[in-house]
Amino acid sequence: MELDDQYPEIIEYKAITGTFGEVRYFLTTLDQSDAVENIRFAGDIQGKWGFSERVQRKLDVKRAETELFSYLAKNGIRFFNSLVIVLLPNSDEQTEFWDFSQVLSNGKPLEKWVNLKLYKGVSRIVIDGQHRLFSLKKYWDIHIGKKSLTSQ
Question: pLDDT for 81-107, tens place per residue?
Answer without folding.
Answer: 889 998 888 777 777 788 999 999 999
